[in-house]
Amino acid sequence: GGNKPILNFDRFSAWGVFFLSLFTLGIYSIYWLVSRANKANALAKHQVNQNLIYGYIAIYAINFVLAFTDISEVLSAIASIISLIVGLVFIFSLRASLKELINEGSNEPVHLSGILTFFFYAIYFQYKINEAIDNQK
Fold first, then answer.
1. Alpha-carbon torsion 64, 70, 71, 73, what sign?
2. What mean pLDDT comes out for the span 35-53?
């Protein structure tokens, strides 16, 4: 709703995000991040760069393919490092948007921990979205 943009997000179990990500070998967490980033971009002043989103998907796909091929370990390591960097930039960019959306229309400012973002990104974000939805309803 209007001045409480976080209510545009769906309430979904953080455990659901965890297990779906586990069972789909991480594909669900990619879907989760991309769909939430697109929704955040529709609502937030802080935008997640669209090229960053596409780049993240592309690098994930390349890494996924490399995991099942017998290609040079150097190439595989380079792809992993690029994936990590792009992933972190993407996740922390999304964090800034979500923080803005969670705090808009909220009575108490919510902090999104950088350490928890780093380790648990999609699960942690869903947990914080749920918390904000519950607090603002």
1. positive
2. 96
